[in-house]
Amino acid sequence: MTITIEKPQTLTGPVKLTREQLKQAQQETLDTPRMRYSLLAKLMFKPVDLLYGKQGSFTKFAMLEIIARVPYQAWERMGYWAVHRHRSRSHLARRVFERIVEAREDQDNEQFHLLIMEDLIDRQGLKRNWLLHRAAPWAISFFYYHVSWLLFLVHPKSSYRLNAEFEDHAEHEYMTFVAENPDLEFVPDPGTYADEYGRYRSVADLMRQIGHDERVHKLDSLEKMAQPTVTGS
After folding, report:
1. Which residues are CB-neighbours of 92 under 8 A, at least 6 positions away?
2. For residue range 124-183, what is the model confidence (pLDDT) as tens digits?
3. What is the pLDDT of residues 181-230, one digit of tens each?
């Protein structure tokens, strides 16, 4: 006899908000000034605006989500190096590994954002081209990845700060996009990734949830700035 054990459903990423909470979160973002972005952050934002326009779009957001995964990948890589280095100190190695798990979870959350954006692009029948969907994402991600791990190597606090700036930018971009496109309130959430990400009443609420996720990532990075490295006790 074969016994099938069903794995309980778990939704990825930060807590999922109700419709009312999502609207409140959006207003909080719109009422909060953006962070003061560093030169490095602006060097990433500017090419994206030039290639995809200053206004938000599903295509632009897909690009942002490709980039958004990068620092978590860099931190994961550096974390495994640190675990190997401190493997003889089990308590410290465990704490480093916990940071790795957090980075991987955040990376997975950003990955689902990307999958959702790509699905919405497909449903709109938007065309993809080599420059916007191959060359540009690779070039900017390559730059961001190496900046992230190098900063983390020499000054971890700056690496977390740069990610917080990027997440703050993404948070405001999503919430502003919803505010500027009220018709999204009447477009049902297709629910393609509902099992993994949750189902929402509309695409507007889906975008608000993604924007709120970015806020949580930002706050996590700002919190880690207080203790950018894991030290032994």
Report:
1. 86, 230, 231, 232
2. 988 888 888 889 889 989 999 999 989 988 898 999 999 999 999 999 999 999 999 999
3. 999 999 999 999 999 999 999 999 999 999 999 999 999 999 998 886 65
Answer yes or no: are the C-beta atoms of 79 and 97 closer than 8 Å: yes
Q: Which two tokens stand for residue 40?
A: 């490095």
- Residue at token pair 């990307």: 114
Residue 162 DSSP code: H
- Residue 87 amino acid letter: R
Helix (H, G, I), strand (E, B) or coil at 210: helix
In this prediction the pTM is 0.89
Question: Distance (Å, rounded) from C-alpha 8 to C-alpha 139?
Answer: 39
- Written as six digits, the tokens of 108 are 């997975």
Residues 6+ apart with CB under 8 A from 143: 43, 44
Q: How far apart are CA 127 and CA 113, in angstroms?
A: 19
Q: Please name the residue that has the structure tokens 């700036």.
A: 165
Q: How far is CA 148 from CA 2, 74, 110, 174, in A?
A: 48, 6, 16, 23
Q: How far apart are CA 176 and CA 178, in angstroms?
A: 5
Distance (Å, rounded) from C-alpha 188 to C-alpha 203?
Answer: 6
